[in-house]
Amino acid sequence: MHVVPNPKRNRKTLLRVLKTFAKTYLPRVRVCFTNGLVEKASGLSDLKREIIYLSPKQELNADAIGLGLSYAYRIGPKYKKLRLQGYEMYFLTLLHEIGHFKIKERIPKSYIRLKREILGNNVSRDRLIELSYIESKIKRTAGEKESVWKLRLADFMSWLATDETISHHMKVENWAIHEFERKRKAIVELVLKAGLFPRQLGTTTIHPNSLTKKAVLKGRKTPS
Questions:
Q1: Where are the alpha helices (DSSP H) in 57-142?
Q2: CA 135 to CA 146: how far, in whole Å?
């Protein structure tokens, strides 16, 4: 397992950089580190309180990332192509959480009606619900591919349990990856200006004593 280095002396500086970056998207949102995220989550968005929580340890190994709904997406070709290094994973996770604020989900009215039917007013969402019952309510339409129908089923069940569909989570993740690719050089500049010298960022190997900011931004490799 490859864990992003997280020296304690750099944590405050890193958090300050992440806050500065986040404010370019969401001026009012607070960003903080927390060890209390469930199921090894990398981050969490509190939309009501306008807070983004980040785990102080971010996994680089795609197969070890505990990202819940986006797990299958991040181990795909697009994520692996990024070849994240150093502190970059913090920014990708932050962008994902920012995406939850920027991209609002529109829930079909049929989902809301079915939820009321299943849970009623006083039944906990933790109640076990038979898949066959859901299938009887969300029926496969004529000519619909089985994979599309199964995604609709998974979307509803995910929304019932977490208040978010898988499709929306993937949309947020796709936006985060796109933004990361667009802002990657700016992220390198922010990190270097703050005096943080991760050994590698993207495809550029960084040595504190032999690398200038100009070289990083041009993407030139330095001698190892």
A1: 71-74, 77-82, 88-102, 109-119, 131-137
A2: 12
